[in-house]
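Dear colleagues,

As part of the handover before I leave the project, I'm documenting each prediction I ran so the next person doesn't have to rerun anything. This entry is a single chain, and its sequence is reproduced below.
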Amino acid sequence: MSAARAGGCLCGAIRYEAAWPPLALVVCHCQNCQKQSGSALSVVAMLARDALTVTGETRMFEDRGSSGQSVFRHFCPACGSPLVTDTPLAQAEGHIFIKAGTLDDTADLAPTVHFWSCRAQHWFLFPEGAERLDTQ
């Protein structure tokens, strides 16, 4: 682990530590991420599975991605904060995803790739130079 970042849910029942920097820091504009986050998008950090340690018990909702693949959305059962996203493909590749907005320190986050840009809210302004993918 080169450095670590800590984070957790709104009520503090779930805490985590993640190796930093992440393998990728991306934004997802898909409709499911919008609904799950209650916002226009979701900022997600991709980590190696062994680079994440979670303390506390999450609940999980099994969603379906556009491909039909399962998307396991882990959240705090007390306050509802979304924390971790997982998929069978990520498991097979040794990756896992955290919701970057749950980090204690978010001041230097600078995502470079936007997935599902075709679903972005019409008022969202993409940062200059950011890569935009219509899907994933």
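The helical segments are 31-37, 88-93. Residues 3-132 form a domain with the glutathione-dependent formaldehyde- activating enzyme (gfa) fold (CATH 3.90.1590.10).

All the best with the project,
I.
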